[in-house]
Each structure stands twice: as C-alpha cells, then as structure tokens.
Amino acid sequence: MRIWCCFCFGEEEEYNNKGYKKSMRDPILGNNGEESPDETPAFDWRAVFDGVDVGGAGASRPRADNVGVRRNEEIDFDINWLLSDVEARNGNYSGERMLNVNLNLGLSEEASSSSTVQKEDPDRDSCSKRPKVNSFSLDWDNHLLQETSYLCPMNEGGGDMSLSNFLDATDDKGKDIGISKMEDLDVRMDLTDDLLHMVFSFLDHIDLCRAASVCRQWRAASSHEDFWRYLNFENKQISSDQFEDMCRRYPNATAVNLYGTLNIHPLAMKAVSSLRNLEALTLGRGQLGETFFQALTDCHMLKSLTVNDATLGNGIQEIPIYHDRLRLLQLVKCRVLRVSVRCPQLETLSLKRSSMPHAVLNCPLLHDLDIASCHKLSDAAIRSAATACPLLESLDMSNCSCVSDETLREIAQTCASLRVLDASYCPNISLESVRLVMLTVLKLHSCEGITSASMAAIAHSYMLEVLELDNCSLLTSVSLDLPRLQNIRLVHCRKFIDLNLHSGMLSSITVSNCPLLQRINITSSALKKLVLQKQESLTTITLQCLNLLEVDLTECESLTNSICEVFSDGGGCPVLKSLILDNCESLTAVAFCSTSLVSLSLAGCRALISLQLRCSYLEQVSLDGCDHLEIASFSPVGLRSLNLGICPKMSVLNIEAPQMASLELKGCGVLSEASINCPLLTSFDASFCSQLKDDCLSATTSSCPLIESLILMSCPSVGCDGLLSLHSLPNLTYLDLSYTFLVNLQPVYESCLRLKVLKLQACKYLTDTSLEPLYKDNALPALCELDLSYGTLCQSAIEELLACCTHLTHVSLNGCVNMHDLNWGFTGDQRSRIPSVGIAPHGSSLVEQHFPNEQPKRLLENLNCVGCPNIKKVVIPMAQGFLLSSLNLSLSANLKEVDIACYNLCFLNLSNCCSLESLQLECPRLSSLFLQSCNIDEEAVEAAISRCTMLETLDVRFCPKICPPSMGRLRAACPSLKRIFSSLVPS
C-alpha cells in the first residue's frame, strides 16, 4: 500500500505571485530563495553529479540557482530505497516493517505520477566510507502510520484520499480549503535527525543530492559534513569556481578525487591550499605544473597522493616531491624526465608504466616499491633507487629488461628485509650469486636467463612460500628443499624434464604444458590435490604425500605399469580417494591394492589387458574404452554396481563385492571362466555371454541367492543343469532365455516357482508340448508375462495357451509364422445375442451387467501380435477379452477382418495391415486407433469408430481410400475425436 503524506513546518513562508518561496535559506548551497544584490549568485554544484535534477526526483524543469522547494511542483519520493539499504547493510531493520511511503511535498495543480528514485550502487573504496551513527530503535512505523492517517484521512467510500484530492477539497461555500488546512497543520513525520543521519550515511553523493530536494529537514541532514569528507569528482565537469565553493563549504574534507576533470592543475592547487585536513588526493588525465608539487609542502596532513596518466611539469624538467607526512605516492603512467622523491614517512611508492629515465629516492621508511614496466629506467637507476630504501620489503621490477644480477646482488645486500620480488620478463637475470634469504614470494615469468643453475640461489631462500617459473624456456630441472614452500607454478616450460620438491607445507602445484617432463618426485604433508594432465613424456612419479586425496593424470601417455605401486598401500599416498588415469595408453597391466581408494577411472586405456583391484572401499570404477581387457579381478571391492559389457575380449572374471546389487556382463562374448561372489546381488545380466557354461551359472546362483532378475539371452551354452541350479534363487521373478537352444522347459518349471516374467524369444527348438505344463499342470502359478515372439509353436499350442492359461496379463507373439486366426470362442450369430455395451447402472459393474453369473475368463491386458504374416482374422468377444487394454496387430500383412468387443481396450494398432477390409469395434474406452497404410474404406472406418465414444486419436496416414474431405464425416461419427492424422493432400 502506498501512503501519501507531506511535511508541514511551523514557520511561516511567503510565496511570490508565481508560487516560488521568497525567502528560504538553503542549508547546502547557503543561498536564499532570491539573489542578494551584494552577493555572488551561488552555483548549482549538484549539477556536476551525473546531471542530477535538484528540483526533485523525476521533475523536468531547467536548473536555476534558486533551488528552493517550489509550491506548484510535486516531488514524489520513495523512502524504501533508503531503508532497504540500511536493512541490507546492518540487518537492524526487518523487511516486514518496511513502509512504502510516498512523500508528496508539492502543491501542484495536477498530480504527477509517482517515480521512485533508483538507487545506484557504485563501487566504493575505503576512502568513500562515511561515518555511521550508532544504531538505535527503529520502532517508529506505528507512529508513522498514525500521523500519515491523520494527515490523509480516509474518504467515506473506503478508499484513501490522495494528497491532490485533499488539497483540492472545498467547503460548503465552494472555497478552497485544502491548502489552508495544510498550512495550518504543524505536524510532520517523526524522522529524527539521528535516523536521517544513519540512513544517509549509506548514500553516495548523487543520492544525497536527490534526498536534499525532498524537504528542508532532509536538505539539512544531507548537507552534514560527515557525508562530504570525500569529494569525488572523478570524470565530472566541474569548474574552478564550483570547486572553490565546495572547498569553502566543506573545509574539513579529507579526500578529493579529481581524476578526469578539466584543468586538473588549478583544481589541485585549490585543493591543497584550501583543504587543510586533506589526507588523500587523486589526480589524472591532464597536466600538473611544477608549482603544484612545490605547494604540496603546505598541505601538512596529506598522506596519499595518486597521479595517473598525467604529464608532470613540462615533461622535460625534474619534478621534486618533498613532503614530511606522505605515506603513499603513486605516479602511474606519467610522463616526466626525472623525479626526485624525498619523503621521510613514505611507505609505498609506485612509478609503474611511467616514462622517466631517472628517479632519485630518499625514503628511508619505504616498504613497497613498484617500478614495473618503467622501460626507460636504466640498470644503474634501478639499483640506485632500490638500494636507497634499506627497509624495502616488496619490489616489483617486472618488464624492466635492463635489470642485471649485479643489481639484484646489491639489493639483496642492502635490503635485508626484502620479502616479495617480481622480476618477471627480465631476460638478463640468472640469480647467479644472489642470496635473498628472507624472500617469501618470487615471480620469474618469462626469464630467459633462469636455468637449473639458478635453483642453487633459490635454495638459499629458506623462507620462500610462492615460486612462479612460467615460460622459463631454458629451465630443465627444479630440485628444491624448502620447508615453507606452499605454491609453485611451472607452465609452458618447453625444456623442463625433472621436478624434485621437498616441502612439508607444499599445498599447490601447477604443472602444465611441459612436453618433455619425465620425472616427478614430491614430498609434502599438506598437498591434497595433484593435477598433471597432458604430460605426454611423464614416466616416473614418486610421492610421499600423507594427505593427498585426489590425483588426475589424464592423457599422461607414457606412464608405465609401475605407477600402480605409487598409489597402492605403502606407496606414499595412504589416504588417496580419487585416481584418474584416463587415456594413459601405455598401461597394460593395472593392479591396485588400497584400503583408501574410492574412485578409479581408466577410461580410454585401450592397451589395458589385465586389471586386478583389491580395494575394499572402491565404490566407482570406469572402464569405458578398455576394449582389450581380458582378465579382470575385483576382489574385494566396495562396488554397488558394475558394467563390464564394454569389454568384449574379457575371458576370465573374478568378483568379490559384498555390497554389489547389479552386475552387467552384456557383450562379454568370450567370457568362459567367471567367479562371482556377491551375496547382495539382485540383478544379473549375462546377455550374449556365449561361452558361459552350466558350472559357472551354478556357482553364481549358489553365491548370489538374492538374484531377482536373471538375463541369459543368447547364452547357448546354458543347459538343463544350469537351469536346475535356479532353485537356489527363491526370489527370482524375471528370467530371459531368449535366443537359446532350449528343448525342454521342465527345469524352469521345477526351479522358478515365483517367476513372474518369462521371455522365450526365438527359442526355435522348443516343441509344441513344451508349454503344456503352464496350462495343464498349473506350472509357474505367479507367471503374468510371457514372450514367445519369433517362435515355432503351432497354432493349436498357441490357442490352448491363450484359452487355458488365464492368469497371464502380458503376452507377446510377434513374428510367429504359425499364428493364424485369433478367434476367441464364438461366431457371428452368437455375437448378435450379446447386449450392447453401455454405461453400467449406478452400483453395478459392467461385468455383472453383461455376464451376471460369470467372471472374466481371461486376465489378459496386453497382447502383441506384430508382424504375424499368416494371421487373417481376429475375433475377440466381450466375455473373453474384458480386461484387454492394449492390442498391437501392426505389420500383419494378410489380416482382413477385425471384430473386437472389449470394454477396457484403450490402444489398438492396425498399422500396415494392408489387406484389412472389415473393421467392427465395440470398445467404449478406446482412446487411440492407428490405421496407417491400410486399404480400408471410409465407410468401414466411420462405422467402426461410431461405437467408440471415448476415441481421441485416429491415425489414417497413407490410407489411399480415405481422403481429407472425409475428416468431417469421421468427426461427426465420433464427436470425441481430438486428433486426426492424415498425410494425403486433396487433389
């Protein structure tokens, strides 16, 4: 809810004939509503902040020096963007108590639309932080609601009266009373000065300017000097007069940023001369005269001076910088001939990317010196500058190509406290006879003079923690024993061969693109992850890393089988959990014995022949692409599932996995010897294991008694003895014996009493009497799904199975050449005596309505007869197929007549039955009917679907006797149709 309220002040105000206030002192600008004849007109300094409109948020009018709040203008201001900032920063204000308050302060004739000031969030550095007052109770929202409801009473209609309506109200005589009542009110919102100070402490200058245009209280609060300690005019167009006025109004400012302003010299001169408390000054993108640096001595409080991208003096003279309190000096990318710095308190000096050829330093307390990319500085100048700072701790001389070892030696002798040295891209240094004992960080990127001999000098830096040697093209070996070394980088070292590191604190190693690297020897108690990818020449690894958890050696093509000793128990990595050896194509025999290894990846190791894993906690293993693996032993392992179907040459397998639940050997066509001891195994797929024999199957069923699903498809070596062993599997419910040479199913009937699914696809050696126990002796009483696709059973055997084995719910007879007519027990005369199917009366089932004394004779729900070439007629009465829900007769080319009356049938597929002529359907629940490529005519289809009251999808594509104009007739015959698919285009 948006609450409209206004601020009313007790003091009287006068307005001229245009509605402007005649007199109001501006607490920020210091000017009155009208210009004084003896005063210089005050400028609108807020105009320099990104074109902020000081007349009000969202107001569009030209700026003027007189920026008092105008009576005929409305200012719509949303306080939530202020309070939300407070909430986000110190968490003292609850989001549930936020109010969406619209402070309408104007008295316009026409109410303007509400426009919420969008708060910007620029990056602020430490110098832009303003002091914050202590947090106090913000329990003022109830009082705010009371006062706003008092100022803005509700109208009789129940809606809230907006301020504009309130001001336009008239009395009984038609006199305008809105303004007078508002002027008489001496009540304002209880926003205390402390609250405003706290809220405003989070705003930048732009938002302070916007807040100043709300009311006089906010104007006074936003002008507090606490918020204007840091005057940031970066890239702003401010004139000298404007800046002078700012300095006069805020003489206690401590930081000024004039980078990118026009004429930085006069502005800088004004800053150092007017702001006696100035501590930080930032300048740049212009020219600074010599007088500015002379005037610095008068700015006694200055501690930080930053000059970026500027010309100092006229560019051909010496610039002296003398100051007794300066702590930080940055002359970045400056153009000058010579710099002389004499600052006894200076701690940080940066001359980065500046063009001076000479620099004289007299800074006895200097700790940090940055002369990176000072290409014109000579070796002697660098030596003189650095050695003049005996307390130097950090030196960046990168890209100073003329630096020599002699300079480094003198620096090492003079600056005994030097800890950080960046000498990257200095081709002339080799560290010969250089001793930097206290060094902790050393960066030597692209130093062509660094060789293996340089390691002798680095070895003396026993405090070294970080070493970077990227692109050192002549470096061949690194051998270091540094007790505090934590991080080392070796990237793109083209001739690097040998790495030998001993450091108890080493925690990060980056070695990449070193094509000749052959040997690695690492000793560390802090290293947890080691990544050495694509080291094609790496052959030897020696590790003593007590806390190493992860190793990645992907595409290390030269690694030999000896690598297994490194990562096995006793090899130096006692807690290793993850090992990646992907695409290590030289590995032929891998053997790991580890009590810690959890994950192992050997993907792409195409030369691997033998694998032996004794890893009791191993949970994941990847063997993708190991297509030459012949012998595998997993004993013992902690695997829960294993897929070895991608190893077609495997001949010997040994598995001992106490937790394994799923094992897939699909495709191990030459597997002849297998020992599988998995007591919790529930799923076993041995498809296409053509050499798997009865003894192996018997041993497996004996050691894995919990198997529920067993797939032996295309296992021709399995015979009666193997099937009799299935009695050891009391939970077996799924058995697939497809594509086998079985002649007798008696072992299955005797051993698999709880079997629910039996698949016998393409078992062409089964006799016609093989299935008699199913429907004569009630064998396999729990069986509900039977697949006899592509078999050779005769028609009578199929008919007896369908007629007598009534507990089957899913039957597949796809491709059975002996399958002829499917007639389930009645003629056409009998069909006429069956009552039509309708909706059963309330309280009685359809079974009772049609067959009051009988229950459905079959439980069959799904019947598939796809591609049966000799089937010609299908007749299914209601009594025989009452529960049938899906029937697929597609690709039965000789099928001519279909007569089906099934109450529960939902899906019927007759596609590609090109001989179909007669179609009679009485299927009230049929929802999908497919007749693709059938020669049946329109009238037959129309008559068939007329009794299918729930049909939604009809597919008659490629039916030559059904043309698109007949789609309307089909929809009329079956109003429930939603989708008709037809591919023919009308002629």
UniProtKB/TrEMBL annotation:
Biased composition (Basic and acidic residues): 118-128
Residues of the F-box domain: 185-231
InterPro entries tied to this protein: F-box_dom (IPR001810), FBL15-like (IPR055312), FBXL15_LRR (IPR057207), Leu-rich_rpt_Cys-con_subtyp (IPR006553), LRR_dom_sf (IPR032675)
Segments of this protein annotated with the region Disordered: 110-131
PROSITE patterns reported in the protein's UniProt record: FBOX (PS50181)
SMART domains: FBOX, LRR_CC
Pfam families per UniProt: DUF7885, F-box-like
Domain of life according to the entry: Eukaryota
PANTHER family for this protein: F-BOX DOMAIN-CONTAINING PROTEIN, OS10G0396666 PROTEIN
Protein known as: F-box/LRR-repeat protein 15
Organism: Nicotiana sylvestris
